Amino acid sequence: xxxxxxxxxxxxxxxxxxxxxxxxxxxxxxxxxxxxxxxxxxxxxxxxxxxxxxxxxxxxxxxxxxxxxxxxxxxxxxxxxxxxxxxxxxxxxxxxxxxxxxxxxxxxxxxxxxxxxxxxxxxxxxxxxxxxxxxxxxxxxxxxxxxxxxxxxxxxxxxxxxxxxxxxxxxxxxxxxxxxxxxxxxxxxxxxxxxxxxxxxxxxxxxxxxxxxxxxxxxxxxxxxxxxxxxxxxxxxxxxxxxxxxxxxxxxxxxxxxxxxxxxxxxxxxxxxxxxxxxxxxxxxxxxxxxxxxxxxxxxxxxxxxxxxxxxxxxxxxxxxxxxxxxxxxxxxxxxxxxxx
Length: 341
Known about the structure:
The protein is α+β, with helices and mostly antiparallel strands. It has 7 helices and 12 strands.
């Protein structure tokens, strides 16, 4: 119900409050305490509950200690089981939306000046650096469904439930992504481009039309349209304008059917380009190696005079049909290349 109120905080990515889209027991806090009670007083009695995943591992690379943490947070809006929850609702909320964050904590050499012959002056707090990258998965933001009650077909037919000429719900969805993550929003679509019996390609065509419509009438300042296609069957894309949705279609199934093709290697140009477009969050002391002249400029700044930091601006949104196997591989590749940009 709180999603219907349309308040700005309902869709923010912060998980510290009950208004977050990732807190599943927010209705309990509002039911028992009302909406006028301060946030800290609610949290004294009810712990915010997140549906997701967390894991942390310790690694060692060339004698340096690394901690890699992986967090996944599932949205409480329009969630459900496979086949029964598909597409988007009238409020612009997509089925089974999951935000994934990868956090890396690196331990640097404590004696940063030893190689210069000077005594060490670094404390333990000055030998740590952090990075974080956030990506998203969710159902294709159109009105579509799969009928499973009439047969035992393991691949139910895909149907467009409703045609929305102005794509208003789709626009609401991407507007919220702009609000939560900034710009650009990069849409990585992994479904099939061609089938003898049209199934996934129905959504592929409709999704491309929706993104093109939103870019032409809402997001793109330069209204020039490009209808070209590259040799691999994907859409040619120019550098995104301010706020433009960048639609990248990459036929995952076609790639895996080619003999001797390494999928991670084949998809690497796509995910590395997306990573350069959005950047990532990092924070490291100015005196640490790599704080000057880093190979990739993420648009960093100085924080309090003691740290250099950069901010992720925009997000990569990945989808296939189920947002499972194909999406897992693409998101793994994105996180893998984020470890060593």
